[in-house]
Amino acid sequence: MKVGHLMTTDVITIGRDASLKEAARRMIDAGVSGLVVTDDDGALDGVITEADFVKTESDRRATKRARLLRWFSSEEGFPSTERHVADVMTADVVTLGPDADHAEAARVMRKAGIKRIPIVDDQSKLLGIVSRSDILRAFARPDADVLKEIREHVMGKVLWIDPKRVEVSSDEGNVTLSGRLETKSDATLLEDLAKRVDGVVSVKTALTWEVDNTKLEMVSPPPGRHRPNL
């Protein structure tokens, strides 16, 4: 599933020139742990999270993050030299385009150790944000929906495979394909396309075929027979 269909478009943002106090207040009011920083044109500028607040007060290591946010948002004890979002935000942000699929987003999150990814267009304008919970929704697709898409769309409309030739089952997104097809290429394509169906975690095949058309080779014409002019 494309992240453009999973992302949240109602994103709470803040400008780079806003104070840390304002950023903390917005996080607390919205109940979120981070904000997307954008410029006046709506282009992505960076992100600011609870961790950024913690880094600014490293000497207060025993302070809980939520408590630190409230300290920043209060009038009492706020630093005399007020800092701004641009001073502490992360500018080097991992992003994806709306056409990226949920599996790619999951890999990026795991590799980068992040919980959310801003989704931007070709001009880096913010379109939305996708979180771990959004990705989980795609992986949690019911088996009945997975089976229906494989049978009706992949087999019926894309590959034109007789559904009687293949038995398809799914257990928590783990798909099994068994049966006998006309060609090996049909079996290979069915397995590859089934892996791309939203909600599929793995694909196990026990498919056989009548013809291994992947090994067919071009041979020279018999003696006396000329190749046609193309």
CATH architecture name of the largest domain: Roll
Order of helices and strands: HEHEEHHHHEEHHEEHE
Q: Largest sheet, order of strands side by side?
A: 1-2-3
CATH superfamily of the largest domain: CBS-domain
What is shown here, in short?
36% of the residues lie in helices and 22% in strands. By secondary structure, the chain is an alpha/beta fold.
Describe the structure.
The chain has 230 residues and is of the alpha/beta class. The protein has 2 domains: 3-139, CBS-domain (Roll), CATH 3.10.580.10; 143-211, Histidine-containing Protein, Chain: A, CATH 3.30.1340. Helices cover 36% and strands 22% of the residues. It is built from 9 helices and 8 strands. Strands 1-2-3 form a 3-stranded mixed β-sheet. A 3-stranded mixed β-sheet has the order 6-7-8, covered by helices on one side. Strand 7, helix 9 (184-195) and strand 8 (202-211) form a beta-alpha-beta unit. Helix 2 (20-30) crosses helix 4 (65-73) and helix 3 crosses helix 4.
Fold blueprint:
Layout: H1 3-6, E1 13-14, H2 20-30, E2 34-38, E3 44-49, H3 50-56, H4 65-73, H5 85-88, H6 102-112, E4 116-120, E5 126-131, H7 132-139, H8 143-158, E6 166-171, E7 174-183, H9 184-195, E8 202-211
